[in-house]
Design goal:
The chain is α/β, with parallel strands linked by helices. About 50% of the residues lie in helices and about 10% in strands. It folds into four domains: about 170 residues, P-loop containing nucleotide triphosphate hydrolases (Rossmann fold, 3-Layer(aba) Sandwich), CATH 3.40.50; about 60 residues, Helicase, Ruva Protein, domain 3 (Orthogonal Bundle); about 120 residues, Zinc Finger, Delta Prime, domain 3 (Up-down Bundle); about 110 residues, GMP Synthetase, Chain A, domain 3, CATH 3.30.300. It contains 23 helices and eleven strands. Helix 6 links the parallel strand 3 and strand 4.
């Protein structure tokens, strides 16, 4: 009967465990010196050897002929343990046995002496899945266990294990395996299984396994079923991932802002039944390599790619700005997080790459903030130059005013200029390009008013100032409060003029109504290079 590679080549002794020497050496020394603990906690990502080391440890401390912390693998205890029929080693899947009753059965069976070995070992896998009541029941026996009982708890989510349990165990953290360690083990298995494994293919399998030996052996098993000669093409076909050339083509599309070609590539990959989520992960990984090469050029040991791809990564790193790479990585990470929860994955990945290829998404929030800071610095420098040259008068120091609450309009102390606005023609009005700066002043002093002026437009003619807003509620607020006075004061501080304030709403004006005065004002603003946005 055929046996999967990850089961057939599971380590039988500590010397066979790859990449966890800091743990296997400690456990061996404890066995040799007779100083084993009553409870252990093995934590780490999947496929790194937690359960394997637990079985080897349990087998070794029970083996009658162990030598230097290594089991003999020939006695009845070793053979029974390897076959999974030794009653002195009890494996419990906490994911299937989560309740208090399961732990109570464990406590009852722990009272009996071991049958063949010297110790009774309970291996509880995925221990974080136990219920709160089960943890409390387990805690009771872990506090004062019988002398012949040892516990080994294994988990991939240590943060879900209560601190009371952790404090009673010796904790060992299993690391993700290095790609070089995985490649060496894969080549060893291939040599003994009599099939050919290309070095680049082994490196790709190690990369896809994300530091887990079990995942690497499972993928190798799948590749061997596909072809006896395992190369990079075999791995990409068996794993259902995009060929490496497609990944770099997509990155070049991002560089060239070529969304048409990017969608075309995604369409061909989707038709070939390529895994969309894995494609996103692969592009994300290669962009990460470009980021690392940009930050630490020449340090190939930090790159997670095949040897023949390093030259391509270096080439692309020279064609991207570091901030741009950060922006693209953020978009890809958001998509990568959403893909598992979305049914229409094709639409999601297409949206992602259209964003990546669009100039509109090329500036991050941090970059926008940098631009605002730069503009503010330029304005301050200009004002300092004007002050130093005597072009403007410096106002005397005064105590800062405290923002006053809104009051009814009739209490406004500012007299509005007498103006007949009916005789003003739209073509006489001039868009105020610096209106956004006035809005910022109002926002800082009176946010309850400035909030309604966001995205508004300002037009001036002599001593009259027209404001077009998108919020009809502001019209009511403007009439019933001192909002006019606040805006008048802000304008006076900005350019020293006193205006009569008039407010219009653009919300219900049809955009195609060319005769409407508001639309004519908007067209006038556009012709003066003032950004205009009409909201429904």
């Amino acid at each position: 009967m055929y046996q999967a590679l990850y089961r057939k080549w599971r380590p039988m002794k500590f010397e066979d465990v790859v990449g966890q020497e800091h743990i296997t050496t400690t456990l061996k020394n404890q066995i040799i010196n007779g100083k084993t603990a009553h409870a252990y906690l093995f934590t780490g990502s999947r496929g790194t050897g937690k359960t394997t080391c637990a079985r080897i440890f349990a087998k070794t401390i029970n083996c009658k002929n162990s030598h230097n912390g290594t089991p003999c693998l020939e006695c009845e205890i070793c053979r029974s343990a390897d076959e999974g029929i030794l009653n002195d080693i009890v494996e419990i899947d906490a994911a299937s046995n989560t309740g208090v009753d399961n732990i109570r059965e464990l406590r009852e069976s722990a009272a009996f002496m071991p049958e063949l070995g010297s110790c009774k070992v309970y291996i509880i896998d995925e221990v974080h899945m136990l219920s709160a009541g089960a943890f409390n029941a387990l805690l009771k026996i872990m506090e004062e266990p019988p002398a012949h009982v040892k516990f080994i708890l294994a988990t991939t989510e240590i943060h879900k294990v209560p601190a009371t349990i952790i404090s009673r165990c010796q904790r060992f953290d299993f690391r993700r395996l290095k790609p070089s360690d995985i490649v060496g083990r894969l080549q060893y298995v291939a040599q003994n299984e009599n099939f050919t494994l290309d070095d680049n293919a082994a490196a790709l399998i190690a990369k896809l396994s994300d530091g887990g030996m079990r995942d690497a052996l499972s993928l190798l098993d799948q590749c061997v079923s596909y072809s006896d000669k395992v190369d990079v093409e075999t791995v990409t076909a068996a794993a259902g991932i995009a060929g490496r050339e497609y990944i770099f083509d997509l990155i070049r599309c991002i560089r060239d802002k070529d969304s048409v070609k990017a969608v075309s590539i995604i369409d061909s990959l989707y038709e070939a039944s390529k895994d969309v989520a894995l494609l996103c992960s692969e592009v994300l990984s290669q962009l990460r390599n470009i980021m690392i090469e940009k930050a630490a050029p020449g340090h190939d040991e930090y790159l997670s790619c095949l040897p023949d791809e390093i030259s391509v990564v270096r080439e692309l790193a020279g064609e991207f700005d570091q901030k741009e790479i950060f922006d693209k990585l953020a978009i890809l990470q958001d998509t990568n997080e959403r893909l598992p929860r979305i049914n229409s994955k094709r639409i999601e990945i297409e949206m992602c790459f259209i964003k990546l290829c669009s100039k509109a998404y090329g500036i991050s929030k941090e970059a926008c903030d940098d631009q605002r800071v730069k503009a503010l610095e330029e304005r301050i420098n200009r004002l300092e130059h004007e002050v130093s040259s005597g072009d403007v008068s410096v106002a005397s120091k005064a105590k800062p005013k405290i923002s006053e609450p809104l009051v009814p309009a009739k209490q406004s102390p500012v007299d509005e200029p007498m103006v007949d606005t009916s005789k003003i023609k739209e073509e006489d009005l001039t868009p105020m390009i610096d209106w956004s700066e006035v809005v910022e002043q109002v926002m800082s002093a009176h946010p309850e008013i400035g909030g309604f002026l966001v995205d508004s437009k300002g037009f001036e003619h002599k001593n009259v100032f027209f404001i077009i807003v998108d919020n009809d509620f502001f019209l009511k607020l403007f009439k019933q409060t001192n909002a006019a006075m606040v805006i008048q004061e802000a304008l006076k501080k900005f350019n020293g003029k006193t205006y009569a304030i008039r407010v219009k709403s653009a919300r219900n004006v049809p955009p195609d109504d060319k005769s409407n005065p508001i639309n004519r004002l908007i067209e006038k603003a556009k012709s003066a290079d003032v950004e205009v946005e009409i909201k429904d």
